[in-house]
Amino acid sequence: MSEFNEFDQQGSVPERNTGSVISHAFEMYKGVFPYAIIAMIVYILGGFLIQMLSGFNSAEMAEDMRSYGNNLSGYSIWRAPGFTLYLSLSWLLGLFLAPLYVGLIYMVNKYNTKTPIEFSDLFVGYRQNFVNILIYSVLSGIISSIAAFFCVIPVFFVYPLLMLGYPILLFENASATEALSKTFAIAKENYGTFLGATILGFIISVAGVILCGIGIIATAPFIMVVMYSLYCAFLGKPRQIIYKK
Q1: Can you give the pTM of this predicted structure?
Q2: What residues have CB less than 8 Å from 94, skipping those under 6 apart?
């Protein structure tokens, strides 16, 4: 069971511009960095397990693609053994790990409000508004997939509209449709800032691959912290959730 405290006077709130939001996210990320790595390790281990269960081998697929040289017109990824099952299991993995990312957002707020962080906080999304987090994950995934169907580029223009969804679900205990409607409305009115923060957030999140392959473990969760900083900038510093034991 959970309840909310009144707004804590401690903690910072960024200004409503891209630079301030990203700077705020950097400051917050430093406080939850070890837990962000744990979340990514869980995701990667889940990915390895899925490959084992599905029989799909990404290394073999890469070898097959290389054998076609520069002409990939005759290659079909759908014929790769286990690929269809791998996609289905990957979708389920992403769905059921969404509450883990919500837990990271919860930790960021505790760090911002100078509240002691506990390891169990990482799993708060499985206790707080769990069903709506799953529904929102499905809805946002469908929206992103439709955008990606036309071209990869539209995803970068659509995703900023979804950036406040998870924080709204956590801090306002909203339904999935309420979160979707609210994030669209706010992001649409402040689209320039949301677009800039989202693009920079993604660039920083994938920087680990560019700089040092395995570094993606350390940088990928940064986009979740950008979500929190955007929430603070446009909806104010959220109230801290307190759980009764």
Answers
A1: 0.87
A2: 137, 141
- Is the Cβ–Cβ distance between 29 and 104 less than 8 Å? no
Q: Tell the burial category of 118 from Cβ atoms under 10 Å away from its Cβ (0-12, 13-18, 19+).
A: exposed
Beta pairing partners, 2: 243
**Cβ 201 vs Cβ 223: under 8 Å:** yes
What is the DSSP track for the chain? -EEEPPPPS-S----SSHHHHHHHHHHHHHHHHHHHHHHHHHHHHHHHHHHHHH---HHHHHHHHHHTTT--TT--GGGSTTHHHHHHHHHHHHHHHHHHHHHHHHHHHHHHTTPPP-GGGGGGGGTSSHHHHHHHHHHHHHHHHHHHHH-SHHHHHHGGGGTTHHHHHHHS---HHHHHHHHHHHHHHTHHHHHHHHHHHHHHHHHHHHHHGGGHHHHTTHHHHHHHHHHHHHH-SPPPEEE--
Residue with token string 């992403």: 94
Compute the mean pLDDT over every residue in the chain, rounded to the nearest whole number. 87
CA 201/CA 199 separation, integer angstroms = 5
Kindly tell me if the per-residue pLDDT of 51 is higher than 90: no
Residue 82 contacts residue 106 (beta carbons within 8 Å): no
- Write out pLDDT tens, residues 134-161: 999 999 999 988 887 776 667 889 999 9
